Each structure stands twice: as structure tokens, then as C-alpha cells.
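Shipment paperwork, digital attachment
Item: protein structure file
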Amino acid sequence: MAAPKKGRRSSGSQGRPGRALAVILIAIVALTGGMFVSGHTTPRLGIDLAGGTSFTLEAKNQPGKPNAINTDNMNTAVSIIERRVNGLGVSEAEVQTQGAKHIIVNIPKGTNAKQARQQVGTTAQLYFRPVTTTTSGQKTPDPSSTPSPSATAGGKGDDKGGKPSGNPSASSSASPSTQGRALSEGLKADKKPSETPSPSNTPKPDPSKTPPVSAAQQKLAKQFAALDCTKPAARAAAADRAANAKPSDPVLACSEKGDSKFVLGPSEVEGTDVDDASAVFESQNGAGWIVQLDFNGKGSKKFAKTTGELTTKQSPQNRFAIVLDGEVVSDPEVTQGAITGGRATISGGFTQQSSEDLANVLSYGALPLSFDIADETTVSAALGGEQLDAGLIAGAIGLALVVIYLVVYYRGLALVAMASLGVSAILTYTIMVLLGPGIGFALNLPAVCGAIVAIGITADSFIVYFERIRDEIREGRSLRPAVERGWPRARRTILVSDFVSFLAAAVLYIVTVGKVQGFAFTLGLTTLLDVAVVFLFTKPLMTILARRPFFGNGHSWSGLDPKRLGVTPPLRRRRSAAPGPADTKEA
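Attachment content:
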């Protein structure tokens, strides 16, 4: 009984090429439509192509810290500045060290230069200090009556006086610029205002028991009297001294606007105790834009303890100065008892931008060093434009050579390759345009190089498939079976090749920074698109063309002419009949 013959592949095994082509067509239409709907029709350009602003930051020597400027601190500063700039929605910003004490920050065109300057130049050293004395145009208090700053370090109960009273003179000492700013919590306070001891029950200090004024206190009082915060130079010098002072030392500080000056006690809570900060619009009580602070576990405990003690003090000593880089950004009054919810808000006088800027610098922490902006220049796009033109010319020459090679060697198949390259180019362009507003992707020169390199990778996939089809024809098969039998072998080779390219791009993206990441990202993106185009366009198109007489009959210009491939008719070999019993016996 003769063995059953193996059946030929059914037509259904060749798949339905029309569906695959419809998928790729729908994708192109959707991406193109999304590009026009978003209002962006060109890719976002990096600083080398669009221009921008370049800042040179110079690290300053820290008093009492001779070795503060080192590699670790500089690298930490680079990381924090980069996160701050990215927090503004800026992509392709370049932040890198130059030499031992300089950091270069390049920001693309379209970014608010003033806002960026504030972000890169702000050290963001944040301290929460109790207010010992403040004045806003009133007579400077006598040194002997000024509460002892040193007593603040030894015992918090002695340096802040009694509970706020209704005395107008007491409340007038608060800063008018920050008087409307209040510190509150998201949860209910432990103490209600009614539970706070009344002023009549507050024990008055015994003058006979007042500690003598030390020389340091007298010196601080003289400096406080001489400080004129209305002068920018004096305000800057005070901010510099306060920013570089130890957290445990009392300091003199000015308000941001220079209309108030303060004597502040040792830091009770530091910026490192803040877990997160965000800008929120508060519409219920008309506060407007506020900055909401979330403390970590350690910070919550310290904040609750300190605010509980401040509640029982007299104005201005029931105030809490929020000191950022040596300047008082707010001095809210604590009136609601101990704040135990681990959350506080800074409110009053903020715009959306100012609240977001403050929240941004607080979220990413303080720089380990103080920096001066040594130079600020505008970067022109002229040089990058010239390099881009040269790169595009090189890419056009390379593409032309690829097309010439395909036409000479593959003839009709060159149309399939060029159509596939065109589909890949459309997908790459539309995706790059949409990634600009989507994730902040910006096209720079290395990214353009990655796109040019991808031309060769994509063309290589076509060549692999075409050669597999030709090998099948050389073995005597007609075009339609050759297209289907050559595909599995070509598919494995294409997938392995593209996997290696994508792996190289991924590793390059991870281990590098700056512009090189643009090259790696574009290379990885185009590699993935190469797989999609080959599977959803090139292979289905070849299946359809194999049914056409021009390709199916092996026209001399089709690139699949059996004679040119060294095949003699018949094109499809017949399997030799299995030897019968007589032949076996004779053998």
C-alpha cells in the first residue's frame, strides 16, 4: 500500500496580505491625523539645531568646608539641576561638568530663560527657623530686650516669649509682605484655638531672672540694627551669610522683597525633611496658588513638636520663617496648635509660575554646593544648521546609492524596497513629531545620524528576504511558493539582526548621557519600525506581487528572472518516484 503523499501548502497558509496592508495603512492615517490634530507638524528641535541659552555655573567655596568642591558633590549637583530643568517640561537640556568647579547648562530655545536661570542658580537650601525678632520700618529693639538667640539652642521655651496677644504693637512687628501667609495642615490640629492658654494666664518673665546679654548677642543686635534690607547689596550679603551659616546658629535674614529683616533662631526643620512639594490652586478659602509640603516621618515629628511650641508664644515669636537660600520667603504665624498631619502649606501672594518654581526646587532637594552664574550666553542655531545641512546631504547621497544598487541588482524588486523605505520614513517622521509634545523628545544632530544609519538597517532586511526568495527559485520553485518558503528563513535572520541592533541601542541609551542618547533613541525606534514594516508591508506586498504576471512569470526586469539566476526549465522540480520492489531487488 503506497504511503500517503505529503499535501501541498494550502492557499490559506499564505495568510491574508490585504489585512496586514490595511493595518499599516490605518496606522499611517492615525499617526498623520494625530500630528495635525495636535498642531505640531515638525519635530521639536534640540539646542544644536534650534539654538537656546547656555549657563556657566561656578561653584563657590563653602565657609568651614575647604574640601566641599569635589567630584561627588559636583556630580550630585549635575543630577539635581538636570531634574529641576526637566521638571519645567524641558527636554534635551544638557547639564555637564567642565573642569573641577564649573557646570555647563544648555537649554533649548522656547524655554523661559528667566525661569530657567532661577532653577539652575538656586541652591535651594531650605530651613524652617523660629522668628526671634523682626522689624519692618519700626525702631530697632534694644539689645538687652532682644530675646537671647543662644537660649533658642539651649531650650526652645525661653527664646520665643508668650502667646500672641491682641496688642496692636505686637502684631505690627510682623512683615506686611508676608502677613497674609499662613501655615496650615491638611488634617485637624491636635489643639483647638480655644484650648490655647489665654494671654492673662501666660506667666510673665521675671526681669531679675533674665540672663545677661553676652558679647555675641550684642554683636548680633548691632548687626541687626545696621542691616538695611532695602539695599540689594546688603540683602545679597545677608542672604549669603545666612545660607552658609550652620543650622544650629542664629542668623540675620531679609525677606525676598527687602521690606523686612529678621533675627532667626536655630533651624528646627530642614529641607531634607520635606518628602514632596507641589503647587496647588486653593479656591475654597480664596488662598489662590499655594505650595503644599509633605514631610517624611522624621520631619512630621519635628514639625509637630515645633509648631506646638510656637502656638503658645507671642508675636512675632509664634512665627515660623521659611528660609530658602538665606532669604525668608514666608514667615507664617502658627495659630492652630501642633500640626501633626505631616502636611503644611505656604500660601499668599503666589502666582502659578512662582508656586510651581518653588515647589520644583523643594521637590528635588538642595544642591550640595552654592553656585554663581559666571556666564550666560545665547546659543545660535547657525552652526547646527550647517551641520544639519551637511548631514542631510550625506544622507541623501547614501540613500541615492542604495536606490541605484537596488535598481541595478534587484530591478523590479527595487520598487518594493523603495516603497518600504517610504513607509518607514513616514512612520518615523510622524512618531518623532508626536513624541515632541508627548514626552519632550527633541531632534538633535546625533538623532539625525541615527535615522540615517537606520536606512541601511532597513534596506538590509529587504535584501535578506529578496535573497531567500532567489535561493528558492534557484532550487527550481516558482515565485509564489518561493515567496512563502523563503519567508520563515528570512524572518529568523531579520529578527536576530534587528534584536542585536535594538540591544546595542538600548545599552547605549542607558550608559550614556546628553546628545548620544538621542542617537540611541532614534536607532532603537527605527529598528522597531523596521520589524513592523517588513512584517506588515514588505512581506504582504511580495505575496500580492507574486500573483502578478510581471513577477510571477519571471520577467527579465522583475529581478526574479530564472535565467538570470542560473535556473533551467522546468522551474519546479519533480520528486523522483520511490524505488519499487523490483528495482530494490535488482539493486
